[in-house]
């Protein structure tokens, strides 16, 4: 039985790539010649039956057998070293960096290597250590947002963390995504991340599966949480370590001319793997699918992705910051000019709405308020505090009907907010409409049972009603 890895079961073996390569004796049972032969024959069969390019798989199948017969692994009886040397031989034959044959070892939690919890536990521990892949969020000079993203996870926690990161970066005038240490992971998050920087609908790099003979298409999302960042200057840092799923992201952003790539050519892994057991102590990751980009019709396997700005990896961030500062300045000027026009239009509509409220023409006034709120939302200015401050201005200037209209509109935009209902309740209370005040204090308390102000005011108004 194999474990399917829709893009990038890479995460399961990457946790071992930093292990000591000095071939220490693992302490496990020594390997005998017949056991090694059986495993090489199994690997040969798996390559022939499952390698993503069938013709090459058949060739590699014969070549690994020939190496064994020539005595390539005769002097290796330590299990861990055997796995490393077979992996090195396979990569030399195939030039495919995704191939990996390894000894199955316990995690630090001590679960049995063959137990069903082995891979879930390792993945869990890796996610804990890597903060679901996001190592750093920061603000650099001149309102430049920075995200150091080192692996893609597919769990709901990883999605939530990504959405929170995008929200953190959303006010930026330029954004830098650092993929220099990112060696892959689950590709399931890539369409979501791309959806914030590329419009809908846009087809992304897909995956062709040999065993199914189909190509899985990936597209940007029609709806995303929060706002899209379609015009914010974007810079992506890459290096010789950038691999697999990280290359999917970098490739799509480059091909669509959405981001400037800064750094070194990437590692060049456009294949995806499945996991197969080999004997009772080993397993192998074999590429069974490959990336196909709808624009280029090809991928980056073996060649990597070339940066737009070629600099040593350690200099990529400094270089990108200098480029981003210039881009942020230009973007900020254009954005400010646009907001100035929006604010002027909004003020004109508010003044008209105030006059209509004074004339008791509430219907037309509310249409204008709707336009104001929509404009504020599109400009990224709208939130509950913005609305409360706006309403306070009108209530303090004895234009209570305008304030009331604004707070009614707030409930339409924030129907789940206890604070929105409480603000409306106070507006009615200040006008002397205790029945409506009681109604909305009650609603505020229903939305939040810990709203002590709403609770006390409801009790007070109910006593006065008696």
Which helices and strands appear, and what pairs or packs with what?
Elements: H1 10-14, H2 33-50, H3 54-69, H4 79-94, E1 100-103, H5 118-129, E2 134-140, E3 144-149, H6 156-169, E4 174-178, H7 190-195, E5 203-209, E6 214-219, E7 234-238, H8 245-255, E8 260-263, E9 271-278, E10 282-292, E11 309-310, H9 316-358, H10 362-378, H11 384-396, H12 400-413, H13 418-430, H14 434-447, H15 452-465
Parallel strand pairs: 3-4, 4-7, 7-8, 8-11
Antiparallel strand pairs: 1-10, 2-3, 5-6, 5-10, 9-10
Identify the notable features of this structure and list them briefly.
466 residues, alpha/beta, Serine Threonine Protein Phosphatase 5, Tetratricopeptide repeat, 6-stranded mixed sheet
Question: Can you describe this structure in just a few lines?
Answer:
The chain has 466 residues and is an alpha/beta fold. It starts with 9 loop residues before the first helix and ends with a helix.
CATH topology of the domain at 330-465: Serine Threonine Protein Phosphatase 5, Tetratricopeptide repeat
Low-pLDDT stretches are: 1-25
The CATH architecture category of the domain at 330-465 equals Alpha Horseshoe
**Beta-strand share of residues:** 5-15%
Helix count from the secondary structure assignment: 15
Strand order of the largest sheet: 2-3-4-7-8-11
Q: Overall mean pLDDT score? A: 91
Number of strands: 11
Radius of gyration: 30 Å
The biggest sheet, with number of strands, parallel, antiparallel or mixed sense and barrel status, is: 6 strands, mixed
Regarding quaternary structure, what we see is single chain
Helix content: 40-55%
Structural class: alpha/beta
- Level-1 CATH class name of the domain at 330-465: Mainly Alpha
> What is the H-and-E element order?
HHHHEHEEHEHEEEHEEEEHHHHHHH
Global geometry: elongated
User: What is the CA-CA span between the terminal residues?
Assistant: 74 Å
CATH superfamily of the domain at 330-465: Tetratricopeptide repeat domain
């Amino acid at each position: 039985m194999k474990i399917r890895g829709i893009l990038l079961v890479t995460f399961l073996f990457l946790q071992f790539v930093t292990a000591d390569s000095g071939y220490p004796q693992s302490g496990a049972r020594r390997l005998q010649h017949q056991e090694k032969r059986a495993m090489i024959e199994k690997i040969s069969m798996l390559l022939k039956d499952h390698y993503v390019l069938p013709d090459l798989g058949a060739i590699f199948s014969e070549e690994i057998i020939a190496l064994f017969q020539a005595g390539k692994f005769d002097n290796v009886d330590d299990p861990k070293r055997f796995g490393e040397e077979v992996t090195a031989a396979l990569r030399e034959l195939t030039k495919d960096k995704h191939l990996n044959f390894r000894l199955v070892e316990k995690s630090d939690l001590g679960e049995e290597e063959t137990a069903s919890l082995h891979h879930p536990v390792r993945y869990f521990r890796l996610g804990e250590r890597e903060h679901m892949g996001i190592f750093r969020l920061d603000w650099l000079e001149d309102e430049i947002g920075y995200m150091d993203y080192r692996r893609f996870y597919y769990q709901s926690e990883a999605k939530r963390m990504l959405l929170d990161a995008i929200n953190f970066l959303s006010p930026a005038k330029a954004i830098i995504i650092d993929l220099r240490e990112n060696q892959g992971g689950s590709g399931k998050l890539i369409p979501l991340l791309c959806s914030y920087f590329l419009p809908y609908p846009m087809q992304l790099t897909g995956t062709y599966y040999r065993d199914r003979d189909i190509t899985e298409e990936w597209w940007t999302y029609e709806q995303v949480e929060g706002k899209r960042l379609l015009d914010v200057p974007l810079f992506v840092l890459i290096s010789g370590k950038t691999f697999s799923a990280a290359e999917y992201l970098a490739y799509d952003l480059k091909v669509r001319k959405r981001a400037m790539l800064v750094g070194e050519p990437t590692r060049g892994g456009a294949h995806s793997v499945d996991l197969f057991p080999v004997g009772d102590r080993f397993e192998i990751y074999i590429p069974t699918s490959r990336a196909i980009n709808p624009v280029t019709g090809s991928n980056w396997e073996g060649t990597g992705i070339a940066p737009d700005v070629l600099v040593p990896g350690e200099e990529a961030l400094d270089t990108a910051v200098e480029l981003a500062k210039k881009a942020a300045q230009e973007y900020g000027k254009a954005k400010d000019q646009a907001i100035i026009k929006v604010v002027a239009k909004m003020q004109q509509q508010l003044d008209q709405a105030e006059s209509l409220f004074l004339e008791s023409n509430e219907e037309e006034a509310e249409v204008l308020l709707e336009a104001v709120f929509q404009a504020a939302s599109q400009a990224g200015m709208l939130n509950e505090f913005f609305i409360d401050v706006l309403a306070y201005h009108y209530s303090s200037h004895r234009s209570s009907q305008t304030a009331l209209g604004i707070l009614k509109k707030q409930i339409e935009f924030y129907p789940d907010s206890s604070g929105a209902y409480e603000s409306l309740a106070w507006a009615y209370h200040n006008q002397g409409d205790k029945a409506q005040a009681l109604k909305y204090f009650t609603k505020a308390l229903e939305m939040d049972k810990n709203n002590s102000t709403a609770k006390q005011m409801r009790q007070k108004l109910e006593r006065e009603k008696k």
